[in-house]
């Protein structure tokens, strides 16, 4: 594998874990909402939000994984374009993760879910 800096490797791993956690929390809240209140006119919008949060996290996780795999396959060094694309993805995801987490917290508070 072409070597990335330890900082970029750590960031990729951390972001993947954060995105997996967002997916897990979103699906957990969806389950709790359905279990406690059910699917009805009042919950449908929130269930759609949770689906969107899950999909956004899944898409970004897939993007990071694909980039990471492409980097692993290139030799002997990472191209400037691929490195730039990776850094842009990291920056984009770094800005998006807090918003997704806030959305989950708001849903949790709005519906008083544990």
Can you describe what's shown?
By secondary structure, the protein is mostly helical. The chain contains 3 helices and no strands. The longest helix is centred in the N-terminal third of the chain and has 31 residues, at 6-36. The chain is elongated, with a radius of gyration of 17 Å. The chain starts with 5 loop residues before the first helix and ends with a helix. 18% of the residues are buried. The mean pLDDT is 95.
Structural class: mainly alpha
Q: What's the average pLDDT? A: 95
The radius of gyration is 17 Å
Overall number of strands: 0
Cα separation of the termini = 43 Å
Give the fraction of residues assigned to helices: over 70%
Largest sheet: none
Could you give the order of the helices and strands? HHH
Low-confidence stretches: none
User: Helical stretch count?
Assistant: 3
Strand content: under 5%
Q: What's the overall geometry?
A: elongated
């Amino acid at each position: 594998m072409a070597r990335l800096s330890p900082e970029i490797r750590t960031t990729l791993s951390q972001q993947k874990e954060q995105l997996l956690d967002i997916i897990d929390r979103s699906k957990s809240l969806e389950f709790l909402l359905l279990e406690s209140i059910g699917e009805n006119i009042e919950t449908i919008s929130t269930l759609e939000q949770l689906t969107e949060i899950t999909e956004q996290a899944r898409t970004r996780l897939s993007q990071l994984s694909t980039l990471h795999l492409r980097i692993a396959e290139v030799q002997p060094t990472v191209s400037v374009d691929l490195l730039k694309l990776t850094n842009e993805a990291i920056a984009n995801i770094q800005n998006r993760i807090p918003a997704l987490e806030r959305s989950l917290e708001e849903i949790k508070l709005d519906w008083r879910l544990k």
